[in-house]
Amino acid sequence: MPVYLLIAAGAVLRKMGVIRHEHDAGVTRLVYTVMLPCFILDKILGSAVLRSGPVVLWSIGIGFAMIVVGVLIGLAVGWAVGLERGTGMRTFALAAGCQNFGFTAAPVLEILWGTGALALLFVHNIGVEAAIWSMGVMVMSGERRFSVRKLINGPIIAVTIGLILVALGLDDQVTGVGRKALSMIGVGAFPVAILITGCSMIDLVGSEKPNWRVIAGSSLVRLVLGPLAILGAAKFLPLQQELRQVLVVQAAMPAGLTSIMLARMYGGRPAVAVQIVIATTLLSLLTLPWIIAWGSGWVGLKGILP
Hints:
The protein is mostly helical and about 300 residues long. The protein has a single domain (about 1-295), classed as Na+/H+ antiporter like fold. Helix content is about 75%, strand content about 0%. The protein has helices at about 1-15, 20-45, 55-80, 90-95, 105-115, 115-140, 155-165, 175-185, 190-205, 210-235, 240-250, 260-265, 270-300. Helix 2 (about 20-45) crosses helix 8, helix 3 runs antiparallel to helix 4 (about 90-95) and helix 11 crosses helix 13 (about 270-300). It is globular. About 50% of the residues are buried. The model has no long low-confidence stretch (mean pLDDT about 85).
C-alpha cells in the first residue's frame, strides 16, 4: 500500500499543479544520475550475499533470461489475440513481457525481506536492463544492431563500482560522514521516483480508447503466465535464497513504464504500451499481494515481515 499511495499522491499533486510537466525532466535526471546511484551504493556496500561470484552471475543471467522469456510469451499471446506486425504486436510483446523491475519492486522487496535481497535486486537488474536495451530494442525497432552505450547509466555504474569494492574487500572501509551523506542523498530516490511515476500515469489516463484485446491479453501475460515462469525459475533453479526473494517480487510486478519510452523512440505503438501499463498497474493492486503470498509458499520462502 505505501507504494500505491505514493503513486496516487503523484497523480494528485499533478492535478493540483504542484508537480508540473516542466519539473519531470529535471527531477528524473536528479533521481537517475545522483539519488539512485547513491542509494544503490549504500545498499551494496557491506552486503555479504554479493561476496559470492556465482550468486552475482546467476542474478545477472536470470534477470536477462526472464525478460527474454516474458517477451516470447508476449509474442505468443499477442498472436493469439489477433495482433500483427504493424498493429502493435511488437509493442505488446515488449510491454507485457517486461515487468516494473525497479521503482515499484525495490520498496516492496525491502519491506518484505530487508537490505540483503535489495542489494541483489540491483545486480539482477543489470541483466534486465541488458535484455531490454538489446533484445527489447531489436524487437521494437526490427533492427539487429546493439549499442553498449545504452547500458552506461548511473545505476549500472553504481552497481559496478559497488561490486568491485565488495570483491576487493574495500566496501567496509566506506564509513563515517561520507557514508552517512551517501545514505541521506539516496534515501529519497524511490519515493521521489514513484511520485513522478504517478504524475506520468495520470497524464496517460484517458489518452487512448481502450482496446480490450490488448488489456485482457497483457493482463494474462504480465499477471498470470509471466509470474508462473518467474516463480518456476525461483523454485526449480539452484538459486540463493535472496535471489528467490527477488524473483518472487519480480513475478508480482505490473508492466514497466520503460516500454512506453521505447515505443516512442523506436517506432512502436505508444498507445498500446500506455494501455498495458495502466491496466496491469491497476490490476496489480489486487494481484500483487496474492502472487507474493502464494509464490513465497510455493517456492518455499519463509519469514515475510508483517
